[in-house]
Amino acid sequence: MAQKVFIDGEAGTTGLQIRDRLIGRKDIELIQIDPARRKDADARREAFAAADVAILCLPDAAAKEAVALAEGLPVRFIDASTAHRVDPAWVFGFAELAPGARDAIAGAKLVSNPGCYSTGAISLLAPLVKAGLVAPDEALSINAVSGYTGGGKELIGEYERGEAPAAFVYALAQKHKHVPEIMKYSGLSAQPVFAPSVGNFAQGMAVQIPLHLNGTRNLPNLRDALASHYEGSRFIAVTDAPARVVPTALNDTNRLEISVHGDAGNGCAVLVAVLDNLGKGASGAAVQNLNIMLGADEGAGL
Ligand SMILES: NC(=O)C1=CN([C@@H]2O[C@H](COP(=O)(O)OP(=O)(O)OC[C@H]3O[C@@H](n4cnc5c(N)ncnc54)[C@H](OP(=O)(O)O)[C@@H]3O)[C@@H](O)[C@H]2O)C=CC1
Ligand SMILES: CC(=O)N[C@@H](CCC(=O)OP(=O)(O)O)C(=O)O
Asked: Sign of the CA dihedral 20, 53, 94, 232?
């Protein structure tokens, strides 16, 4: 029998992309509510009551409200917002993070989808902290460039109307919403300096972490630690270092590619993760988590 899935916030950027990935699947029946009633509490509670899994593609406050509305119902949640990512009652939906992560997602009632920048940063840092090549209290910095769809409907509107600049750097006050989850799931005790930016392209991103080489780490052992962590992974791979890293290279896929750049002679390196902010950074990851929760093929629809 088909599993019933309700996408709350279906008309938004993330919701629409999830819908596109699920539509036509025979093992899934999408529950929809009248668009005019999409913010109506009664209509949403009815949808939660009918669903096996609800995927929340909403602002944080509305995601919290959704969970409260469904209190007492057996529905399982995947939350694409930031609202529950460091909440210990929720399982962090990053199947490739560590052994056991996939099983935890499979058995969870509450799964929180990682943020897009976080997916890139954690994919680089968590294996290296675990391998002892990055110290938890190391002074790190993370730079990133994202397509403008990461900013949701509002930023998309600015770009589509031609009102936004070709590129901008932002969130330099060091309070970006992804920092707590990056620290928690990478295993960092010191806050990394984070400098994200947006360019005039719709989707895709590159997350970069500059590192100095030292007596413990060199280019081969950084690469080996990452390659061995992701060995056999369906969606994450370590590649050769391209001369130009193109943020849009993995658009419309659920893939993430890591490359290790640098020069042993001058002791400087840069780790890079490329992903689609709307793919592995949001909707693709949500569908991957849904597949794991339903016991379906993990790559179905991806
Ligand atoms: N864009 C991205 O790259 C990523 C986004 N996310 C997260 O996913 C969530 C959704 O983001 P995104 O899709 O970009 O946002 P959008 O602004 O594109 O879409 C949000 C949708 O939620 C609807 N909505 C708002 N409040 C309510 C409510 N109370 N009840 C029901 N529906 C409501 C909105 O309706 P209306 O149109 O009427 O406002 C809109 O359709 C956010 O938490 C975001 O942080 C996560 C990863 C990546
Ligand atoms: C370009 C842009 O504005 N990006 C967003 C993050 C997008 C995102 O994916 O954030 P969540 O996963 O937490 O929803 C920002 O910096 O706030």
From this structure: negative
What is the span of the domain harbouring residue 127?
Answer: 116-277
Whether the CA torsion 208, 212, 216, 221 is positive or negative: it is positive
pLDDT digits (tens, 9 = 90+) for 118-153: 999 999 999 999 999 999 999 999 999 999 999 988
Write the pLDDT tens digit of every residue in 244-301. 999 999 999 999 999 999 999 999 999 999 999 999 999 999 999 999 999 999 999 9
Atom of ligand 1 nearest to the CA of 65: 29
Active site residues: 116
Ligand nearest to the CA of 167: 2
- Do 84 and 120 reside in the same domain of the chain? no
In a shared domain, residues 194 and 223: yes
- Could you tell me if residue 221 is inside a domain? yes
Q: Is the CB of 196 under 6 A from ligand 2?
A: yes
Query: pTM of whole model > 0.90?
Result: yes
How many CB atoms are located within 10 Å of the residue 90 CB? 20
The residues lining ligand 1, judged by C-beta closer than 6 Å to any ligand atom, are 8-9, 11-15, 38-39, 57-60, 62, 80-82, 115-116, 149-150, 152-153, 277-278, 281-282
CA angle 131, 134, 140 (to 5 degrees): 155
Residue 13 confidence (pLDDT): 85
Same domain, 142 and 195: yes
Distance CA 118, CA 116 (A): 5
Strands 205-212 and 268-275: antiparallel
Contact 41, 71 (CB under 8 A): no
75/17 Cα distance (integer angstroms)? 22
Residue 116 alpha carbon to ligand 2 centre in Å: 7
